[in-house]
Design brief:
Alpha-Beta Plaits, Trigger factor, domain 2, Chitinase A, domain 3, 3 domains, four-stranded antiparallel beta sheet
Length: 479
Amino acid sequence: MKVSSTELPSRQVALDIEVEQERLDRAIDEAYRRLSGRVDVPGFRRGKAPRPMVERLIGRDRIVEEALDQLVPDVVTEAIQQEKVEAYTRPRVETIELDPSTRTEGTGLRLKAVVGLAPKVELGDYKGDLRVSSEHASVTDEQIDGVIQRLRESYSQWAPVERAVQLGDRVGLDLLATVEDEPKALADSKEAEYVVDPSGAQPAPGFADQLIGMRPGEEKMFTLTVPDDYREKSFAGKPAHFNVTLHWVKERELPALDDEFAQQVGDYSDVAGLRAGIESQLRAREEERVREQLEEAAMSQLVEISSIEFPPQLVEHQAQHMLETFTRNVEQQGLQLPQYLRLVGKEQATFEEEIRSEAESRVRRSLALDAFADAEQIGVEQQEVEDEVRRVAAGAAEADAVERLAMTNPATLQRVQEVARERKAMARLLELATAPSRNGGPQPRKNREKTAERAETSDTGKQSRAAEPVAPVAEEELR
């Protein structure tokens, strides 16, 4: 076997391989013997029929294909070893050239395989150049009041009133809406209930406004234009004629904001306790938002100031993983991916390009964070891994069983270790990025593009993570 290697851009090596004639013939003979034992030839026991009869029955091409299926992976592996290539991804065979005479006499095989090398990351001066503006997490009285108002609305009652319809009322009505030259009605309902809210669902824009001022027993006719993006295209953009008969009107009655309401909402003794509890929850949420923004800005800067080279197979693997995950999520909602794309008005090619772009972003961030963790000598002790497993298992049903399973599963422990290391690396990155500069404060950079979650890509060799966000390990991962 003759092999020559050529280094390609983006951390790849091309292997041009020529296989000796004798080895190819042996592979074809072995393929024939395997296939002949599976073929029934009239008048002969399996494996005993003359070779020409077997070849006529199954075809010479089928035998050659069987030979190549076994031979090609073996010779590519040997070529990698022979050229001392440190493969990071699975080899991809790009071309197989078989002399036409091989299909009749068995001569000549050449092939080309491409192998990805380990990514190469050269971090920039992150201790000197990496700076993000820190933001204080604050909660206003207006935010607390807004939550309380929504709580009161969720506990409200609808009470009948004898007056004209006002914004926010609930009404009962008969509705008939038709479009000229359309045999099917746009809407046809009896005793339908509807909340008069222009920002809510409407059969056509302006419908809620037409109800305001109507009184029980009143009938009204009006014309509105159906939206251009209406789900039934035959109605889209056309004028619709509405006939509405109003039966009743109800207004929302909010509960009093008192200690009794606070006790009804949750484990609060009074309104002050309710406000304090809401403030605590809002502050925790705001702190999480600020932290995520800082992470995004810091990771974006780390990637920007670093040189990152990697084989394109990593992006292909990540994009495929993301596509499969997205498709599975859509199917769980009762849709096929093509149906979903039609609903959102997106072409398949555009969607796949967006997936690939996001996949590349995730790979870059994952590799940069991994290199940063190496540079900062960030590790995870076994005790930290065990503590994380216990923490997650504690919130699961049958916590003891989940913990035992996790502790004896090497793959789960490895994943927990990876997540813990990523979390520690991100904490260290933020520590450096928000540290006061020599001039007395953080120096923000202009580029604060949004960062995707680190996730998981893997092929062979040391693996980069580019598929799952840095987050506590879920219970499902412990099983």
